[in-house]
Amino acid sequence: MSRDTDVLVLGGAGVDAIVHVPELPLPYADSYMIDSGIRARAGQTGDFVALGLSALGLRTHHLDLIGDDPEGDLVRALHRDKGIGLTAIPQPAGTKRAVNLVSPDGRRLSLYDSSRAHADDRLPPATVRALAEASRHAHVSITQPCAHALPVLRESGVSISTDLHNWDGVNPYHEPFAYSADVVFLSATALSDPERTMRRIVDRGRAEVVVATAGAEGAYLLADDELTRVPPVTPSSPVVDSNGAGDAFAAAFLFGWLNREAPRLCARYGAVAGAHACTVPATRVDAIGRAELLARAAESEPRTTGR
Predict the structure, then answer these.
(1) What integer best gives the mean pLDDT of the chain?
(2) Beta carbons within 10 angstroms of residue 301's beta carbon
(3) What are the DSSP E strand ranges found in 14-72?
(4) Are 92 and 120 in contact (CB under 8 A)?
(5) C-alpha to C-alpha distances, 125 to 1, 117, 128, 176, 289, nearest whole angstrom
(6) For residue 291, what are the contacts with CB-CB under 8 A and spacing of at least 6?
(7) In Å, how far from its chain's centre is CA 303?
(8) Is 68 in contact with 94 (CB distance < 8 Å)?
(9) Residue 121: exposed, middle, or buried by beta-carbon count in 10 A (0-12, 13-18, 19+)?
(10) Of 51, 146, 190, 238, which one is least surrounded by beta carbons within 10 A?
(11) Hey, which residues does 183 pair with through a beta bridge?
(12) Nearest Cα to 56, choosing from 261, 277, 291, 271?
């Protein structure tokens, strides 16, 4: 069967309201004046991964539940403007949304509106199967509808990746994603022992590669039973917002992985893209292109070291 799509992205479509605050944690006060304004823009984890993949030249399609509402219009417009295919399943509860508080040093606190999801939300299996069978790879957000789509994805024969974000290595909700994916991304933020969690993912699941990102400290890469440290890449301009850095890392890593590059080079691509994302203001959606990624990866020193 023809695989006309390089990557099918499932879930993670939504809208963020961006609020620039003087500091985080934000001290209690009755009110704050936000001189820069409060702005809404489409772009949550699935949107950012799809945007990053498309900017690198990969044929990308996005599938999610989206409401018939102003937020949904923003999501549809983003995909239309960026030339990214979108299959929008009607969501009566409305399009996912969040409020991001962003500090001057680029850190953020995200407040998610959990009322816009129901326990019985599902991505139609026939739609998932048809899109997966036309794709080389599927990247799965850790939403509840995507959890139910995992068996269909496995049956389709497509390779799978996922991002567990700030999993603590204990919460059982994340386990079906962790143990079903061939490539697993997660943040090291909540892990007391990243290597132990990463090896458990490999031992209990089907992962070939596990990457734990560590922000300004770089990342951990587990591939071929070897744990290595991936050094950070210095951003080309000042850091203004860390939102979307992990998604950019995942997209660039997958760009390399799908082109059969060595895991260490894939991780270097991820580090370059993540650093670039930190220089993009929160109110914009922008991703590094293929030419810039390859040039910056070549410039950065491949000093990945053993533990």
Answers:
(1) 93
(2) 8
(3) 15-20, 38-42, 60-66
(4) no
(5) 19, 18, 5, 17, 33
(6) none
(7) 25
(8) no
(9) middle
(10) 238
(11) 161, 209
(12) 291
* Three-class DSSP labels, 126-181: HHHHHHHHCEEEEEECCCHHHHHHHHHHHHHCCEEEEECCCCCCCCHHHHHHHHHC
Kindly report which listed range (82-91, 132-141, 167-176, 284-293) carries the lowest average pLDDT score. 284-293
Alpha carbons 150 and 286: distance in angstroms, whole number: 29
Task: Give the three-class secondary structure for 16.
Answer: strand
**What is the spatial distance between Cα 65 and Cα 67, in angstroms, rounded to a whole number?**
7
Q: How far apart are CA 199 and CA 202, in angstroms?
A: 5
Residue type, 259: N
- pLDDT tens-digit map of 25-57: 999 999 999 998 999 999 999 999 999 999 999
Are the C-beta atoms of residues 78 and 286 closer than 8 Å to each other? Answer: no
DSSP calls for 58-120 = --EEEEEEE-SSHHHHHHHHHHHHHT-EEEEEE-TT---EEEEEE-TTS-EEEEE-GGG--TT
Is residue 18 within 8 A of residue 98, CB to CB? The reply is no
Q: What is the pLDDT of residue 2?
A: 64
Average pLDDT over residues 96-101: 94
> Tokens representing 89?
């399943």
Report the candidate in 243, 246, 23 with the shortest Cα–Cα distance to residue 111.
243
| pLDDT reported for residue 307 | 44
Q: What is the pLDDT of residues 209-224, one digit of tens each?
A: 999 999 889 999 999 9
Residues in the chain: 307
Q: pLDDT digit string (tens) for 230-256?
A: 999 988 888 877 778 999 999 999 999
